[in-house]
Amino acid sequence: MIIPLKYRERCTNEYFRELEKIKSHAPTSIQKILMGINKKVVDNFYATYPFFFYSHYDDISEEKIYSLAKCGNIFMTYILVLDNTFDQDNPRDNSTLILLHYLHQTAISELSKLFPEDSLFWTFYIKYEYDFFSTEFSSKLRETHSNEIDMPKFEDFIEDILKRNSFAKCATAGLLSLKPKLNATVDPFIATQDLFHIGLQLLDDLEDWKKDFKNNISSYVLAKSLSDPTLINALKQNPNKTDIIGKYIYYSGLAVDILEMAISYFKKSLNSVSEYNVPYWKSFLENFILKTEKQRDEISFKVNRNLKIKKTHSSLVKNTPFNSRLNDKLDNKIIKSAIEYINIEFDKGFVEMEHIMELPDFSKGINPNHGITVVGKLFQSTIVLDLFFDLNDIQNNLISEEIIDNEIKSIMDSKMQNVRGGWNYFPNYKYLPPDTDDLAQVLQVLVKSKRCNINEYFDDSIGLLLDHNTYPNNVFKTWILDPDDDNLIQDIYKTTLKNYWGDFRGADIEVTANMLYALALYDYDKYSTIISKGIDSIISLQNAEGTWSSIWYWYNFYGTYVVVRLLSYLNTKTDALKLTAKYLKDNQNKDGGWGVNTSDPLSTALSVLILIDIKKTGYEIDIDVFKQSINYLNRHQKETGAWAKVPFIKMKVGNKYVTYRSSTISTVFVLKAICGLIKHNISLI
Known about the structure:
Blueprint: H1 5-24, H2 28-42, H3 62-86, H4 94-114, H5 121-145, H6 154-164, H7 170-177, H8 190-207, H9 209-214, H10 220-226, H11 229-237, H12 241-251, H13 254-271, H14 279-316, H15 333-347, E1 355-360, E2 371-376, H16 378-394, H17 401-413, H18 436-449, H19 455-468, H20 487-500, H21 509-540, H22 557-569, H23 575-586, H24 601-616, H25 623-635, E3 647-653, E4 656-661, H26 663-679
Antiparallel strand pairs: 1-2, 3-4
Helix pairs in contact: 1-2, 1-3, 2-3, 3-4, 3-7, 5-7, 8-13, 13-14, 15-26, 16-17, 16-18, 16-26, 17-18, 18-21, 21-22, 22-24, 23-24, 24-25, 24-26
C-alpha cells in the first residue's frame, strides 16, 4: 500500500505554488538554486511524510495535513540549500544566505497558522531544531577544518543520526498537537522513525562512501573500514586509495554486513508499530526491507561469483584454452587479437556474456511478493563451444580436450532436475520451463563433441517435444511443457512467461530450424520425416524479400542464418536460398557490412555465415562480397580484439522489449564467420 496519488499530487502542487511565490520576488541567482532542488523534494518520500501516520489521527482534517506537509517540504528545501552551502564543491554567496532566511521564515509563518503559541508542537519543534542545527553545524565545521576523517564510535554515530533527522519528527509531533483531545504529551512514533533513520543512514553511507572519502566526511562505513590495520597498510602502499577502499568494503564482507544491519533496523522500526493503525508507513517499511534484501543478495552473489572466478583464474593461467602458436591459416592480426580476447574472457569465466535479469520469486506460492536476480550463460556457452569446434577444425587441438571436457560437463550439469524437457535459459531458476532452443543448442554441441551416450540425456526430452509441444504444421513450440506436471508448476510457468518473458504462441521459425538442425546432426534417419515436413513449413514461411523472421532475436539475420544452415547441411535445393543470396547481395552496405539502418559486426558476421552456407549448396557467391565484409570487420575491430556488442536476444515484457547484447557473442560469431571463410579458402585480405 503506497500513499495515494491524490495526496502526492496535491502535496506537490501546493509546494510548487509556494515556490512560485518565492521565485516571483527573487533574483535569477535564487531561482537557479531552487530549480536544482525542487525535483529532489517532490521525488522524495518526505514530500508526503505526514500521510504515513495520518490514519492514526484520522479525525484531523485533510486540509491541515496538507498544510503540515507543505511546511515539511519548505523545510526540506531549506535543509537541501543549507547542505549545498557546506558542500566544498559549491561556492557560497549572498543569494544562498538570503534564500535560507526566506525559506526558514516562510516555514515558521506557515506553522504558526497551524499551531498557536501555547501549542505542544512548539515544545517539540524547539528541541528538534536545536538538535538538528547543533549536530549539522558541528559536523560541517569538523569536515571543513580537518584533513582526516573522524572515527566515531557506533553509539556516537547513532546519536548523530537521530539529531540530524530531528526535523522529520516534527511531522508526527504536529499530528499529535493537532489532536488535543488525546491529552497526550508523548509522540508514539518517535522510536519507529529513529530506527528507520539509522537504517537509512547506513544505506546512505554505503552508497556515498567514495564521495565522503574525497570530502573527509565522517561515516560509519569509512570509520569501520579505516580502523582495520590491513586496509591502512594497503593504503600506504597504493596511491589508488579509492580503489583499495572499494575492494575492501565489498570483498571483506563489510558491505553485506552494513546492509544486514540496515535490514535489522528497518525490521525493528516495523515491529515497533505493529499495534498501530499506520498502513502506509508499514507498507513503506516492508518495501524498504525487500529492496535492501535484494541489494544485499545481489552484492553477495556478485562478490562470491567474482571470488570464484579469481580462484579459478589462477589454475587456468598455465592451462589457457589456446596454444601459444597458431598455424599459418590463423596467423592473421584480425584473428589473433580476437582469439586473445576470447582467451581473456575465458580466464574471467565469460562474465561479460552473462545475461542478468530480475524474475519473480515463487518460493511462497503463485503470487510472488518480490523478485530475485538470475544469471544465465548456458545458451551463450554452447555458442562459444561451437566456436571451439570450428577452431579445432582449422588447427587440430588448438582448444585442449581438457577445456572442452570441462565446458561439456558444466553444460550437462545444468540440465533441469525433476523436470522433463532438458534445459532452460536460466539453469538456476526453476520457475522457467525448459525450452526448445536450449535443447537444440546443447544437443548440437554434444553431437559434435562425440563424448557421451547421448540417448540417455536427450531421447525423453525430444519425445516430449514431438509428442506434446509441436504444432500441426510441424513447427515447434518454444516452451517444452509436460502435461503431466502438477497444476501449480504449470501455473507458475504460465505466470512467468506471460508477465516476465513473453509467451509467444505462433510460428517460431528460428527455434524450429535450430532444433531440426540438431535432430539432423543427431539421427537424421530416425527423425527424417519430422525434419522433411518441418523444412517444408519453414520454406513456406520465408519473407518475400528472402529472409526469415525471428521471434526471440533482433532483426532477421539470426533467423535467416539458422534456417540456411539447416538447408545447407541437408544440401536442400530450393529457390529460397537463391532469393536469400540476392537479398544479401543487394543489401550489403557501402562500407561492406550489413545491419538495420547502419552496419554492425554481428549482422555482418551472420550474413557472411549465411552466404558461406548458400555457397556450400552450389550457388555462386561473388568473392568481392566476402572481401568487402572482411574489410568492414577489420576496420571495426576494437583494440581489445573484440567487436561491439549488438542487440541479439529480445524478450517482450508487457509493451516493451528487454534486450540482451554481448561483445563476446559478437566476437564469437565473427570468428565463426572467419573460420568458415578459411575452410573455403576465401582470402581474408
